[in-house]
Structure formats: C-alpha cells, structure tokens
Amino acid sequence: MRIGGFKVGDYAVKEEGGRRHLIFDCKNCVYSANIADDKACRFHAISVLNKVEADLLVLAEVYERVYEEDQTQMLSEVANLLQRFEVESIWSYSHLGKAGEGCEKYFSERHNAVVKIAHDLLSYDPIMAYLTCLNEISRESKRMQQEGGAYAKCTESYLETLASIKEAFEETRLIKSSRKFLQRSVKIPESTELYRAFFEASIKPSFIGSRLMFKGIEQMELLDEYQVMGSTVQIFSHPDKIEKIYFINPPEYLLPPEKYFVLSKTREVVAGYKPGRTSLSTVAKSRKYFERIYESTIRDVAKEFRVELSKEEIVNLAEIVARYTVGYGMLEVLLSDRKMTDIYLDSPIGQKPIYAVHSDFGQCQTNIIYTQNEAESLVSKIRAMSGRPFDEAHPVLDYDLPDLETRVAVIGPPLATDGLAFAFRLHKITPWTLPQFIDVKYMNSLSAGLLSFFIDMQATSLITGSRGSGKTSLLGALVQEILQNSRIIVQEDTLEIPVEYLKRIGYNIQRLKTRSAISVSKTETEVAPEESLRTALRLGDSALILGEVRSKEAKVLYEAMRIGAAGNVVMGTIHGDSAYSVWDRVVNDLEVPNTSFKATDVVVVARPIRFAGSLTRHKRVVQITEVKKHWREDPEEEGGLLDLMLYDAKKDELELLEDNLKESELFDKIRMTSGMNVKEIWKDIRARGNANSFLVDLKEEFKLPELLEAENSSFAHNKLLLLKENQIVEHGSVDYDELIGKWKYWVRNKLVKQVIAKK
Predict the structure, then answer these.
(1) What does DSSP say about strands 487-492 and 543-546: parallel, antiparallel, or unpaired?
(2) DSSP assignment of 398-450, as one string?
(3) 522 with 428: CB under 8 angstroms?
(4) From 72, 103, 272, 727, which residue has the greatest number of CB atoms within 10 Å?
(5) What is the 3-state secondary structure (H, E, C) of 95-127?
(6) 623 in a structural domain
(7) Count of structural domains within the chain
(8) Is 476 a member of any domain?
(9) 0.85 cut: is pTM over it?
(10) Mean pLDDT of 703-726
C-alpha cells in the first residue's frame, strides 16, 4: 500500500541527544522530499506524525532535509488536530444543522465542506484548510442574513461548528504564524509561499552525521571570516547572547546533487574496509594513501554513472571521503582551526551545539550538532589508537591525537550519567614566543627581559595560574630562552609543548611522556611521573622542564633542585593564583618540606583579567615574585615572598617595584656567580626586553607576523647572544648600546629580508 507515493513504513524513529528523530527514507519516492513545496510530502509526514511522537523530522535521500523542533511541532499539532476532528466526527449530522426535513437538504453540501476542511485539506494543506474555513464562514453568514427565517435557524448550529473548527485551527502554531504573515501582506499569497517561510529545512549530505544550523544570521553582526580546510568560518555577535557564534560552512554542503551522489556511492564502496589498530595509529601518515584509493574509486563511480569530474574535483571529493572515513568527520574541520584552544561536546550528545573557545573571540557556540553515532565511532577510533580500555570499569580515556596536535579527554557512564562527553585541548603547533606575548600585551618588554635573564642565570622557576591563563604557553616561550647548546628534558603527561617543532629549529630536547593525571585504568603501562623524573635525573646534565607539577613528583623535583642534581635550568607549571598559593600547594598539599621549597627562585603568576567587569577575558602576567631563603614557617608572614613586578589593572601594565629590588637575595646571588654589577645586570635585562620589543615594532612596520614565530625569534635571540659573546671575547665587557645597535641593523637588513623572501 502507498500513501502519496510513499510506501507505508518507509520511516524510522531514532533517539538522538534526548530527542526523537523521525527519519523518512525518500530515496525511491516519486515526489520531492520537501515539506514546503510538496503537498504529498506534507501528507505523508502528517499521517505518520498521527501515529508516532517526534521532535525532529528528517527527509533522507542524497541530501537530508532536517526540520527542527518548532517546525516538527507545527506538523505534529496539525496531526493531533486531524485526529481530534476524526474522534469528534466533526462532519456528523449533529454538527451540520437542526434535524428535520427543512434543514437536511443542506446537509450533503455542508458535510462535503466540513470533510474538505477538517480532513482532506487539513491532511496536506492546513493553511488552505483554514482559509477555506474562513471563506465558508463568510459565505454562510452572508447567506443567512440574506435568506433569514427558516434558513437562519438551520444554519446556526452549522456556523457554530465552523467557528469551533476555526478556533481549533487558530490554536496551532502554524495558523498563528500564518495569520501574522497574512496581516502584513497586501494580498493573500499562495499557501506554498507561506510553507516556504515556515519550513525552511537545514540541508546536509546524507553521508554526514553532524547537522549544521544556519538560521538567524540576518540578525547577527559579522566579526570575522576566514578559511579552514576549504571551509568558510564566520564569527558573529548575537544581540541577545553573551557568547559569540561560530558558523562553519564546509565545501561538502555546497556540492551539486550529482557530486553528492558520487560521494555517497564512494562511501558505500569503501565502508566495508575497517582499519585495524596499526592502521589507525598511523592515520596521519596513511591519510594520503587512503585519499589515493578514494580517488580511484570516485573515478570509477563517476564513469559508471556518467558524471563528469575534473582531476581537481576528484581530488577534492577524495579528501571529503577521507574526512568521513579514516578522519574525524565534521569535528576534523574544527580541530584544524588553530585559532581554537578548546572544544567541548557535553552529554547527552546531540542535545546542544558543540561549544568552543576561540583565541580571538573567547567562548563560542558553534552551529554544529554532533550525533551519538559519531561520538561512539570516535571513541572506538581513540580506543584503538591508544590501546587503552574504555568501559564502565574505566570511564575515562585520555589521549593525544598526534595528527591534530590535540589532547582529548573522554568520559562515559557511570562517571558521566548522561552518556559520552568530550573535551579537546588544541596545542599551538608553533610555540608562543616572548615577542608574541608582548604583541598581545600578555606581558611587557621589561618582564620578558627579566624572565629571559633569570633563565640565562639558571634560576629555578614555577609558572602558576588557573586553567586557560596561558601558563603552559609561557613555559614553552621560556624554553626558547635556554641556550641552544644546552640539553633539555621535557616531562609531560599531556603533550602540550611542541617539542618536535623546537627540535627542528635547533633545540636539543628529549621528551618524556608520563602517565595521565586523570587515568583510571588498572592496566596502565605508562610510567608514573615521579619514576619518570628519577629517570630524567639520570640522563645527564640537562635543563629540566615539567609540563605540570601535580603530585608525588613534586618531592622528587625539589630533592633534585635542592642538591643541584637536576643540572641547570629547572622550570615547571603548577595550578595556583599567587606566589603564596604555590607555596601552600607545594608544602601543605604535596607535602614538600619548607626547606626544599626554598629551592624555588622565582614564581610567575598569570591570570585572565576582565577589565571593568567586562565579559571579555584578557590573559596577563600579573606577578613576578622572588622566593627568598631566610624564613622558617610562613613565607608571607616572614617576608619570604618578594614581589619584583606587579600588575596594575587600571594602567594595564606590569610594573617594576624598584624599592623591593634592594631586598632581593636572587640578584645578590647572580652578582656573586656572574661577576656582573647591578648596573650591568639591568642593562642586560633591558637589552633583552628591547630586542623583543624591536621585533614587535618591525612586525607592525612590515606587516610580518611570521617574524615573531619561534623559528625567527630564536634565530634573532641566538644572534644577540653571539654578538654579546664576541664583545666579551674582544673587550672583556659588553657595550650594550653598541650591541643593540649592531643587532638591530642585522635584524632589519638580514632577518627581515629572509622572512619576507621565505613568505
């Protein structure tokens, strides 16, 4: 049996994100899959909604047309109204007029009119049914006035029936919206125009699980637009929302039907291949291999179905197929946007759009609705790549996606009661540099020079701040201030410092990966942080960098710092909001003795600042504090924490506390170990700061942001140190004015030209 060209039963109800999706298979339908344009399609949808409850309506063929909750609710109300009229038998004799021979001669005509309004038209064109009802009321009212007498008596109850039908219509959202639309119109439009206004579907390729929402753009302000993997990204400001709106429009949403068809067929062909663990673990390396296979398949499919495709079109389609097979689907586009810092998928998956944090615009709501199927597929992929368990006994999965420079944390039941949830932290592919931090006002040139100097003098430093304050990024920038002839050991539980990049530009780094801090696996094979640190101390004289000091490794670290076994520079990050909170955490929480904590020379505090209570957060270094050595119990009460620089929010400036410098034990120690006097120390610090500031100025002058990248800023830093060393060898001292003059000449006439030529 067929209803309006559809075979009865060609639909399924699927729950996704706590909502019921009514999905129609429209591939073999003789009519178009379009609620707005096709009355047969409306008829079938309303007929099925009479039997099942649904929150979203999906018409699936080569494209999928997705009708959101408010649109589906409109059709459901029509279906309920249709059922109500049938139950009430609104067209029965008792509703058509008074019984008796004088009135019954009108019943046939009236019966046909009511059936047409309350059943036939309502089933496929409810707006026209309503308009027809209004016309019938108007026609009968005029006739009753004209004929009066007996006809009026026969018509009163019929008009009451029509009035009740009209009121029932006007209780539905569809008719309420239509009335507003009609009141604004000069003439009554075709009902199809009204349906197009109310039933504009979200359209997506059928092979893509995620849905994209594009509604409401007209009322938003466009803030930025750029490209990611061939996809257009637009950032909007919504007049009624605090967060910004991140819209992405990938190329696969803009293809003509014949290309969608080729994509769908290609995906069907390659879907049978399931990469094993070895293949999945080398996805980044094998991606091009799969794309070549898909190119061949696309070429064959296009030839078989006589679809003409150029070589470039075949390559582009193969990249799309790879994205939705061996890749990460729609999520891959987000993860490839390196302006993103964090991406969140909260449970239940599919209930709300993906949420993200943008480096320029802060917290953003995306236009992507992820699906449960995609989430489960992603977990399977991560589990296969990591070799780690993920089940009720192990509801946490933490892993670094090496091909995307991203860490992902997955939680599931029973820890996440509403189902799977994901948090992605995107690592900057190239590390932040001190000039870049100066450029964005994260710190000023003097503080950059001061920290660079402390590292050169092998001070031990801890960087503290809340999550998202930039402490790990600052750690990565300060690593670049270590002499390139030094050996560096970096220990991390999550791979956030771009070690491979630093190796490529000349740093000697050995990375140690330790057990994840959030792992709950009972079969974990990774090395514990404290054991890894003991190993690091046996790997020879090296600068030691700890991604984060969290737990038992703190005791090992401070033992090493105290006896000097760690070699030269020691740096790490730790959660806190002040130098005092670092002491409190290390001593009282991590049980490191006070005497060991004193091995810390400097604490650097970073914090997000909301100027004047603004909604926007600006990251800033707010405190550089020296840890003095002559105190016993509480460093704050006994003057053991000496602030060298403090942030003034009114001025938006990190200021040097010159009076405090007189009490500094660290500068006294540096004078003794370096042979430099106070004046020479500060000339060195200011020269380093001025050099970084000069790079920022040239970046603005030549519109050359690449100049501040680690590859070039490290080259410039090395040149400054070499020129300084030449002066020491030749003259036994440094003329800082001459040094900076020569260095600036070299930067402008050689480095800048090299960067421009490479660009």
Answers:
(1) parallel
(2) EEEETTTTEEEEEE-TTTSTTS-EEEEEEPPSS---HHHHHHTTSS-HHHHHH
(3) no
(4) 72
(5) HCCCCCHHHHCCHHHHHHHHHHHHHHHHHHCHH
(6) yes
(7) 3
(8) yes
(9) no
(10) 96
